[in-house]
Amino acid sequence: MAPGGTWTKSTIISKIAMKGTNLTAPLKGDDGKYHESSVNFRPGDLYSNNNGKFELASQAEPQGSYQLFAKKIKVEKDILSCYLLND
After folding, report:
1. Could you give the CA distance from residue 87 to residue 78 in angstroms, rounded to a whole number?
2. Most distant CA pair in the chain: distance in Å?
3. 50: phi then psi, degrees, rounded to nearest 5
């Protein structure tokens, strides 16, 4: 399944190609032309279109048992931060 986000409003759906976690799609640029753009994504990531290129809008939390003991989980620019509960 392709990642969500506003990029889907500026592409040609029939030309989207996916292989594993790699997505390739034509995205409309500011010049009005479509530009082929590719991105490796994680399930839950959201993307936008920035002048014909994929731009990460929101990053999914990585899965793991830490979530059982964490609160205020946040991911920004590939950095995970959270508060871990202490017994």
Report:
1. 28
2. 57
3. -115, 90
DSSP SS3 for 32: coil
Whether this model's pTM surpasses 0.90: no
Q: Are 13 and 26 in contact (CB under 8 A)?
A: no
Whether the Cβ atoms of residue 35 and residue 27 lie closer than 8 Å to each other:
yes
Residue 56 · residue 49 · CB < 8 Å: no
Q: Which domains does the chain have, with CATH numbers?
A: 6-58 (2.30.60.10)
Per-residue pLDDT of the chain (87 residues; tens, 9 = 90+): 889 999 999 999 999 999 999 999 999 999 999 999 999 998 889 999 999 999 999 887 777 888 888 988 888 777 889 899 886
